[in-house]
Known about the structure:
The complex is a heterodimer.
Chain A: E1 13-19, H1 25-37, E2 42-46, H2 57-68, H3 73-83, E3 91-94, H4 97-103, H5 105-115, E4 117-121, H6 131-139, E5 143-148, H7 156-161, E6 167-170, H8 186-194, E7 201-204, H9 210-219, E8 222-225, H10 227-236, H11 241-252
Parallel strand pairs in A: 1-2, 1-8, 2-3, 3-4, 4-5, 5-6, 6-7, 7-8
Chain B: E1 5-6, E2 9-13, H1 16-32, H2 36-49, E3 56-58, H3 60-66, E4 70-75, H4 85-98, E5 103-108, H5 112-124, E6 127-133, H6 134-139, H7 141-149, E7 153-157, H8 164-177, E8 182-184, H9 195-203, H10 205-218, E9 224-228, H11 233-239, E10 249-257, H12 268-271, E11 273-277, E12 279-284, H13 309-316, E13 320-326, H14 327-341, H15 347-363, E14 368-373, H16 381-387
Parallel strand pairs in B: 4-14, 5-6, 5-8, 6-7, 9-10, 9-14, 10-13
Antiparallel strand pairs in B: 1-2, 2-12, 3-4, 11-12
Helix pairs in contact in B: 2-4, 4-5, 4-9, 5-7, 9-11, 10-11, 14-15
Amino acid sequence: MNRIQDAFKNKKAFIAYLMAGDPNLADSAKHILTAQEAGADLIEIGIPFSDPIAEGEVIQASSARAISAGTRLDGVFEMVASIKEQMRIPMVFMTYLNPVFVYGYDRFFAKCAEVGICGVIIPDLPFEEQGEAKVAAERHQIEIVTLVAPTSEKRVIQIAQSAEGFIYLVSSMGVTGVRNEITTDLSAIVSEIRKYTDIPIAIGFGIGVPKQVEYYSAIADGVIVGSAIVRIIGEHGKNAKQAVYEYIQSMKQGLVL
Amino acid sequence: MNKGRFGEFGGQYIPETLMDALQELEEAYNHYKDDSEFRTELNALLHDYAGRPSHLYYAKNLTKQIGGAEVYLKREDLNHTGSHKINNVLGQTLLAKYMGKTRIIAETGAGQHGVAAATAAALLGLDCEVFMGKEDTERQALNVYRMRLLGAKVHPVTSGTMTLKDAVNETMREWTRRVSNTNYVLGSVMGPHPFPMMVRDFQKVIGVEIREQLCRVEGRLPDAVVACVGGGSNAIGTFYDFIGDEKVRLVGCEAAGKGLDTDQHAATITCGSVGIFHGMKSIFCQDEFGQIAPVHSISAGLDYPGIGPEHAWLYETGRAEYVPVTDDEAVEAFERMSRTEGIIPAIESAHAVAHTIKLAKEMGKGKIIVVCLSGRGDKDVAAIARYKGENINE
């Protein structure tokens, strides 16, 4: 299976997020393959949730469209399984905790391993509450990616020391969504994290143009782009392939090598 | 397992962007709750401004009409702003001020918590913004205007089902944007730790007073205390002081909406299952894949798909019982209380009254029931008229 570390091996990583089931699961599978073709180094697949409290309007709307289109967790697993053999880059899930908890931690992570998912990002599962889920995830060699926020400060040490996969550094306060200006001193946070771990650090939240990719990939090991891609898929629906390809390719060119 | 647990329930399942703010809040609360200056100022506000202690009133007419157990009403509806919400809001807003915050944000369902928050902010000189589901801003238009009158900004929430749960989502999102100068004043015993503990501490005065007041007139404890449950703040306030008195039945009344055989209810304990949402492990109305269910109640304040974690624990351990009450039953109790006692209860509280009437018959003479009248019903008059097919100009 592809591992998260592969995405960062001897290079900076461009991480692309999209929502499973928007506009439908068959097209999501195509868009994931397109993102890979366009140069993405890691794919983050969103599992739609009724109440995505860490998301801005773009991903909220995408989540709602996916649910209205009838997307269910078992369908998401099937979709991922259907492209497993064609994927040369690692895939992780981004999901809220309740769908995982209700499905059953062990059953969920076993299924992840089966379909070729190597990690999960769960925004409402902070470090302190990871215990239960982590035991089950480890059993199936699924890595739980932890977030660090500009306000994590004294908690950075414990988060960094037990981090796996990569550290998701939240660029600024607030929810997901493209921003024109980010004022957080991210270099300082990266240096702080670096004191405690060598694990890759990727910066996400608010990144939408190649100039930002250039800037943040110079500071960290990778960048995560979500809302901008989700917006393109939202605008073009089934016919998003070309636009997704061109966008990711242009963003990828911003990466500092 | 992290702190803030009631058995397996509770916890702090919240985005990393809020963890620091929650820890700051918890530390500040633990510091000030025993601080004599803070206690003195809060107690003075509760007494002089909110009007505590609230009365315990013997509902003579209703008791006579039912012909069973004696019914007492804990008159939280007589508090300033018309509900129990002021108890919590004065505590949290004063805490925000002591912490040096300049702004509070709050969610609201029926608008009672929003009005209370706007009131406390006006009194204590803080900015206030309230998030309210768009559907609720329409069915509680009077409270929206009331909040604006008090100087608060009201944001109608158009995401999801446009009701209380979506208002909570949006308030949490807003909090992540501005944690440095803002406290989230949560309205119920729900959400991540320390809210369930802190809100319960600010509300437990209800039960403490019931004990004292009833002992004074009857010389004994009640046989049952009854309260309505959305998130569960007036219920936990009513129950908490009696948890150790095993002979006192603790009865929570949840909204059965149009009936449990429909999908239009908010009967979390009766129909829900264990989940993790809004920062807490508790019981929720949800589907088999963990998507939170749209819920319904005639009462905006009970129209919530979850319940506070301490209630989930009281239910699981068997210490408290939870019963469903339909829209129809609540409306009937709303009218009956108005006619027999001359007291118009909030439609939320009317759920508790409806079950109290049943329970008083069941338990029979010689028993004593105290029902928490958590709020007054002025805000509901137009909606109940509509429910009865009459359109009045508000």
